[in-house]
Amino acid sequence: MENIQILVAAHKIVPMPQQAMYVPIQVGAALSSTQFPEFTQDDSGSGPNISEKNPYFNELTAIYWARHNSDADVIGLVHYRRFFSHTRQKDLSKILNATQLQSLLKKNAVIVPKKRRYWIESSASHYRHAHHDMPLDVLREVIATQQPEYLEAFDRNMVRTWAHMFNMFIMRREIFNAYVDWLFDILFAVEARIQEDVETWDGYEQRVYGFLSERLLDVWLEKNQIAYTEVPVVFMAKQNWLLKGGRFVARKIGIGRRQ
């Protein structure tokens, strides 16, 4: 029987799935005065961790922890508000279960969310309308100098009008290891160039490395010709689509746009 760990990243105590394969993980635990009961902490274990970088890397501290401290055969990342599910029911008992996952993994070794489509703008323009420009430019420079074989795939993905978002995935171990090593090699290089500026930004924008990584999963999958299966994502919290739409329009016309 395969050892499956689907990490559920959370920064507060919330209801969690009862299925054994779901592992609640307290992200940023090194910065907290309280350890959440029955949660794994992202600063635990004998291997390295980047728990203290959580304000900047967000849920990525969970997958860094797993890379160096978990021995699971299959590893995934979801969020306490977002789960893979074949239904639209906001019910933790209806999310993707072990039987369904095993069936999916017989087809492909990687599970990702359904594509998020922007329709009228590219992945790059979507990023630039929502965040500071500079990190995306530095990201491209890092790839061009340190991972040049990925630059063509990066540029293709930046002009596309869709992406697999949320930093959510499920992968077999060998693929997970390769992806995480590649991802952090790039992100740490970006961090070395921009962190001084990042320290001056507001708390939301300081989560920059988590935002950038959402643009990198498809680059890695495409360049390495990794086949994947898409599974819908259910949002446990109610979505205010009117508010989201208003923010989108405001960004498009430049109101509150970040430089």
**SSE string:** EEEHHEEHEEHHHEEHHHEEH
Mean pLDDT, nearest integer?
93
Placed side by side, the strands forming the largest sheet appear as 3-2-1-4-9-6-10
| First-last Cα distance | 50 Å
The number of domains: 1
Q: What is the tally of beta strands?
A: 11
Largest sheet: 7 strands, mixed
Low-confidence stretches: 244-252
Q: From the helix content, strand content and strand pairing, which structural class follows? A: alpha/beta
Count of helical stretches = 10
Based on Cα principal axes, name the global outline.
Answer: globular
**What is the helix fraction of residues, given as a range?**
25-40%
Strand content: 15-25%
Radius of gyration from CA coordinates: 18 Å
Walk me through this protein's architecture.
The protein has ten helices and eleven strands. It is globular, with a radius of gyration of 18 Å. Helix content is 40%, strand content 16%. The longest helix has 26 residues, at 173-198. The strands form three sheets. A seven-stranded mixed beta sheet has the order 3-2-1-4-9-6-10, sandwiched between helices. It is α/β, with parallel strands linked by helices. α5 crosses α7. It starts with a strand and ends in a 7-residue tail after the last helix. InterPro entries: DUF4422. Residues 5-225 form the DUF4422 domain. This is DUF4422 domain-containing protein.
